Amino acid sequence: MAGGWIGKLLRVDLTKGTWAYEPLNMKDANDYVGCRGLGTKIFCDECDPKVDPLSPENKLIFLTGPLTGTGATSGGRYEVVAKAPLTGTIGAANSGGRFGPEIKFAGIDGIIFEGKAEKPVYLYINDDHIELRDAAHLWGKDCHETTDMLVEECGKFEVACIGPTGERQMLYSAIMNDKNRAAGRGGLGAVMGSKNLKAVAIRGTGGVKVARPEGFIREASKARAMLQAHPVAGSGLAALGTQVLMNLINEVGGLPVNNARVGSVFDRADDISGERLADTYLVKNQGCFGCTIACGRVTKIPDDSPYAGFGEGPEYEAGWSFGADCGVDDLAAVCKANFICNEYGFDPITLGSTIACAMELYEMGAIPEEDVGFPLRFGDADTVVKLAEMTGKGEGFGKMIGLGSYRMADHYGHPELSMSVKKQEMPGYDGRAIQGIALEYATSNRGGCHVRGYMISPEVLGLPIKTDPLVTEGKPELLKTFQDLTALCDSTGICLFTTFGMGLPEIAGQYREAVGSDESDEEILLKGERIWNLEKRFNIEAGVEKDTLPPRLLREKLPNGPAKGKVAELHEMLGKYYEVRGWNQDGEPTEEKLHELSLE
Amino acid sequence: MAKQLAVDPKRCVACRSCELWCSFRHNEVFNPRLSRVSVFNFEASAVTVPVMCLQCDESACVKVCPTGALERRADGVVVHDDDKCIVCKMCVNACPLGNISYSPITKSVFKCDLCEGDPWCVKYCPTGAITLVDPDEVPDKKLAVAVSFKETMEEA
User: Fold this and answer.
1) A413-441 tens-digit pLDDT
2) Which of B29, B46, B105 sits opposite A298 (nearest CB)?
3) At A195, phi and psi to the nearest 5?
4) Which of A187, A321, A376, A435 has the fewest CB atoms nearer than 10 Å to its CB?
5) What ipTM was reported for this prediction?
6) Residue B20 sits in which domain range?
7) Which residues of B touch A296 (CB under 8 A)?
């Protein structure tokens, strides 16, 4: 067996209640790397792009990469792949924690779920002892309760599960592992819920080997040293978490406020920043499995606060979505809303952005107060927490919030006020102030998303090079490279955050030594491009809408800040981007390109 | 005098890099269950503690071993000899700290050997939560306490 892999997949037929091992296709593993890439390849080979995401015919794939569970830099990731119910695109969501490596230690590279169980079940894996067990007692429990109950029942197992939102098939419910880690976006929790699959509890005693141990030690040690010496990857993220971004993004005028209606400078950004969190509610930072970065926040809101609680988060995106985007400056409330998302198992980016959209619709009179039962005003921290809770429970107006901003705004006659792309909400960077991220949002293969080629690195952080965020020139070329590199990075099983401090040579170097490849860096990066094109082709066949942005970003000029007067100049970039990608001007990969990537 | 491993739970971020690299150093496989060091995470209090052999001066494992498979070397490190071991697991039971392990996978007993003076749990710990210290230097801790006491007195 090639290094890095176990060489075996577990296929579970939930309809029949049966399971079987099968060999991993090593040619596909080589061509599509692992995790996101290989998961998508398996999915595309087995599923109709037109499949209803919440039908038994949709498959749900949990897959590791060749570096998952090894000593590679932050090599603790796994991917969940299915057709996403929120967007109708390919859904691939990446998560850390301890669950991914445990899949490998249990002697498999991944699990393919098909069909639908008659009653709620969970999958028990203890090395090669595998059972589909009754989950009636877990149904209705939140993610933390479910995890605790399964650890009590099974022993020292790692758990991935859905909460009540996934059970209800809410369109942006997540799959949560190790309580607070999420395969978060696109609604993959709903896919799991539609299959009556409550959880996977896994434990293994095996290990992962690499093809060339000496070389692997050399490459992994070199990459780790680079990360540890880096100001962002080595110390910034450990000290402040991803919330380190709050003040930085605000300084470039790219922090969307009040559903991006009043511009993107938040005068109280510091009150919800990573610095403020470190001074107040941060208990400790923690890392995922094998991670040197350790950006995770363990936070506690004191018992005498109306928002008392203990958990993890917030990340920058949740800090922004519940904070600036709702006009809220109360960090305790932001933390609380994030805890609710972790417990009920749903995506805080989409939730916060949907609440912000509802606030705008309410203030303009499009949502009548009787629909909600109370006023929805920007800046009201209580409302944000209350709506998070109602949405988690599926009560009252929470049902409407649970549709996501696009479907909710459409219901009230204003789909244009949903700050989403392909029905998935954009994260906390205004594309008018940061042009490359606008192009990234428009072209992302899973709808509005920041982790499909993180343009904030070159446009704001200056990593690896500083570019002007207001300029469009050069962005299509840069974005293509970032997208391909991200597809590669995600697919190896290491964390995308490593790319703050290292690049292609370090990813490719560790990959080569793990699997025993002699391919060049460029040949390995080409796999990332292949993955990107495969995803794009799936989306075209699925009938996903064209690449564009909400009209607010395209037409409403930013009223303030360093980017005052700017709109997202998508038209200046999109055609060039398609050209750089080798696609036609409708945004479709050409025959030549598909041939070049062996995708025909 | 043998050097020994010291842990600082405040610095530990629960990443378990030590477990991964320990198993790789000794077995050429990444497998936490073959690691000589184990990390315990107490979630509710957000405290994480790596635990490993401290090379006790009065080693119960050495005393109880019926075949001389466990021996203290001249440098003070207690080492385990697979060839002499009959895998009776008396040492596993005798260690008051639980730092001798038995693997059902390799069907053998294993313990920390300080990686011949360059422990990989130390080398690959990203935060310095595990360090290799000379017991003679432990009074540094006392000094640190004294310094903080002095500062408190100055403020008072």
Assistant:
1) 999 999 999 999 999 999 999 999 999 99
2) B46
3) -95, 5
4) A376
5) 0.95
6) 1-52+112-156
7) 13
